[in-house]
Predict the structure.
Amino acid sequence: MILDDALLATLLNAKHIVVFTGAGMSAESGIATFRDAGTGLWEQYDPSVLASSQGYRADKALVWGWYEWRRMRVLRAEPNAGHIAVAELTKRVDQLTLITQNVDDLHERSGNTSVIHLHGSLHSPRCFTCARPYTFPDGIPNEPVGGRRLEPPQCNHCKGTIRPGVVWFGEMLSEAAWKQAEQATLTCDVFFSIGTSSLVWPAAQLPVMASANGAKVIQVNPGATALDNKAHYNLRGKAGEVMPALLDALIAH
Ligand code: NAD
Ligand code: ZN
């Protein structure tokens, strides 16, 4: 990868870096993105059924089964070279805030202990009725190929049913998560947008806000996105290749 002098200087002088990631960050770990043709999960299922409270109310076993199938796949996946490079970068800069749209825990498992999950997590379900958190039993249950319908567990407190801890269509983001993300975005001098199509709002607003506030926006994505004409740098490539190369260049300096 060609890392030009201006980009290198920007990174070396950065006081606060925000790394903002989307589904493309986990693609090389074998977790399907939503919009990549052929592999996207949305190709096979209707999102309005699987990712909405209406869909959950209508068929809890279908929706819970789908999320459990996805969680099993994540538990079996490993962080890729991109996740690891982000964790390494975190150790080498004054301040780094990691914001993700991903509902997996691959950033955490590669060493980033503090991650802002804008769209929630597959690993933090809660009661649909009383909102108390639910703890999964340990271990990785058997996962039939292609998934299956599965009745959700019951809440220990109110006997309500458990729902996935992700933000569904039509739902607000957690106010605390959004505030933290916004705060970091407005105080950073470098903003990385990695592996996101920049189509899902309000998350897609963050790099635009960063740029308007004077931060340099660096996009890492093998394809074109809605952010291309707003980013200062478009590094065309996979997260698992570009991020390690970038880290190497920084270390070599
Ligand atoms: P998206 O599917 O809309 O876009 C994925 C982007 O990643 C595309 O621009 C694609 O070109 C890029 N990409 C593909 N492979 C890449 C790679 N190896 N390196 C870098 N980029 C790569 O995903 P999104 O923008 O995150 O938004 C959609 C929603 O999908 C989010 O709300 C998120 O919660 C959800 N989602 C999460 C996961 C996960 O947790 N791993 C998986 C699927 C979907
Ligand atoms: Zn409950």
